[in-house]
Amino acid sequence: MPGFAGATAPEQCMNTTNTPYTLGAYAQWSAVLSLVYSFNRAVLTGANMTATLIDGKALGRRIKQETAEQVRALAEQNVRVSLDAVIVGDPAAGEIYARSQRDRCHDVGIDYRLHTLGGQATEADIRGLLRELNQDDSVTGIVLNLPLPEGIDTPAMQYYIDPYKDVEGVNPANIGLLFYDNPIMAPCTALAVMQILEEVNVNPRGLDAVVVGQGAIAGKPISLFLLHRMATVTSCHVATRDLHQHTRQADLLIVAVGKPDLIRADHVKPGAIVIDVGINSVRGRDGQRRIVGDVAFDEVKEVAGVITPVPGGVGPVTVTMLLRSAAEAARQQLVYPRRLESRGGCCGQAQALTT
Question: Second label for 70, Cα 20 to 30 Å away, from 152, 153, 173, 296?
Fold first, then answer.
């Protein structure tokens, strides 16, 4: 079978305890091989093939509906789901995004509140506002909208968001817990990618997965999620010497760089699953701007087995994963009412998480 010529027969595979895999594991391995076989059908039959497109808009609508139901269920338990967004700097610059956030929240019954700090705000001002929101029990979710003004240390500010209210999963405490496959909240883009794989019934176990890009909210957490699900993961980045060599081996190729058309048809293994996380604004020959991904879609769709378009792929799912995370944050605060003993930074947070 293409791409698995060197694979060991499942009945000969050994796990980390040097004992043979169980029949259940054998069945799961067989299912993975069957899935890869179906994605490589064009190679095996010699037929031309256009990739199956993943409809992120439809998936996003379904997640949105499920989230609205969860919000209603929490309301029946006297829990109001809220999202408090913080904008620092020129409020006009973030107004369109904030309005979009508000409208999406209202669509599913989430209370949305916007807090603005002027362009002269200091890190102490931001920390003070975040502390207030952390300590306010009516606030169940917090978003610190980016970018922050020049001179503001973004990771240091994210450090001060209560991990239980950190609906974007950007607090270092949550990023660190992701290493152990036990985050309180996780980055929405990474959650969106895993949700898409689930939607198309892709079990990463045993697959050769290549993640191009190692950003803190996309590439790195996606790689960790895949590792926890027993994929064989290769991380490519700006220092990778031969990108083709790695991507051509990938059963699952995920690209999150921010470089238009970085991945061309000759980068992709026939029948591979290609997830394009990139969002880039480019000017076409007609002078009009359009949104494209990191993957040269028209080329790659003729080679891949499954592909996400841009726009309409990962983006809509990521947006609705934020709403789902907001509802999940409220649910966790209901089920686990104990609050962090210190909300003034990750040192106190880490102590509280381990006590």
Answer: 173
> Which tens digit of pLDDT belongs to each residue from 57-84?
999 999 999 999 999 999 999 999 999 9
| Low-confidence winner among 32-36, 161-165, 266-270 (lowest mean pLDDT) | 32-36
C-alpha–C-alpha distance, residues 275 and 154, integer Å: 28
| pTM of the predicted structure, to 2 decimals | 0.82
Burial 29-59 (b: 16+ CB within 10 A, else e): beebbebbbebbebbeeeeebebeebbbeeb
Q: What is the DSSP string of 36-104?
A: HHHHTHHHHH-----PEEP-HHHHHHHHHHHHHHHHHHHHTTT---EEEEEEES-HHHHHHHHHHHHHH
The three-state DSSP-derived secondary structure of 13-35 is CECCCCCECCHHHHHHHHHHHHH
Is it true that domain 75-165 has CATH number 3.30.565.10? no
Phi, psi dihedral angles at 52 (to 5 degrees): -70, 130
CATH number of 187-317: 3.40.50.720
Q: Where are the domains of the chain?
A: 75-165, 187-317
Q: Give me the DSSP letters along 148-193.
A: PPTT--HHHHHTTS-TTTBTT--SHHHHHHHHTT--SS--HHHHHH
pLDDT in tens, 305-353: 999 999 999 999 999 999 999 999 999 998 876 554 444 445 444 434 4
C-alpha to C-alpha distance for 47 and 40, rounded to whole angstroms:
10
User: How far does CA 84 lie from the centroid of its chain?
Assistant: 21
